[in-house]
């Protein structure tokens, strides 16, 4: 687990071909490069899935959103699935306003996200 300006990123044991990344704290212009790096290191293959578990996320700015949108695009290019789980009501509301619910898939918890990617 790595801490950087109040962001922690942890990798949970995969569930089959689905990998789980837990992101907690503040995702902003200071911390977004850490998440981008962690996503780069995953290297998704066709048929893989990635759940970004965000129940511990307190804050997400436009830089953080662009990293998530980039993760979605990379997953699509790799023919892999991506799902976000556990967003707080405030952050999910902000994402809805920005139209991200049409692009990204949101689930209440990691188990639901894993089930959706299977």
Structure description:
- The chain has 118 residues and is of the alpha/beta class.
- The protein contains four helices and six strands, in the order E-E-E-H-E-H-E-H-E-H.
- It has one domain (2-117): Transcription Regulator spoIIAA, CATH 3.30.750.
- Helices cover 37% and strands 35% of the residues.
- It starts with a strand and ends with a helix.
- The relative contact order is 0.18.
- The model has no long low-confidence stretch (mean pLDDT 94).
Give a quick precis of the structure.
This protein is 37% helix and 35% strand.
Q: How many β-strands, per DSSP? A: 6
Mean pLDDT across all residues, rounded?
94
Secondary structure class reads alpha/beta
Could you name the CATH homologous superfamily?
STAS domain
- The order of strands across the largest sheet is 1-2-3-4-5-6
Stated plainly, the CATH topology is called: Transcription Regulator spoIIAA
As for the number of domains, it is 1
- SS strand fraction: 25-35%
Task: Write the SSE topology.
Layout: E1 2-4, E2 7-15, E3 18-27, H1 32-42, E4 49-60, H2 62-77, E5 81-85, H3 89-97, E6 106-107, H4 110-117
Parallel strand pairs: 3-4, 4-5, 5-6
Antiparallel strand pairs: 1-2, 2-3
Helix pairs in contact: 1-2
Attribute tags:
alpha/beta; globular; Transcription Regulator spoIIAA
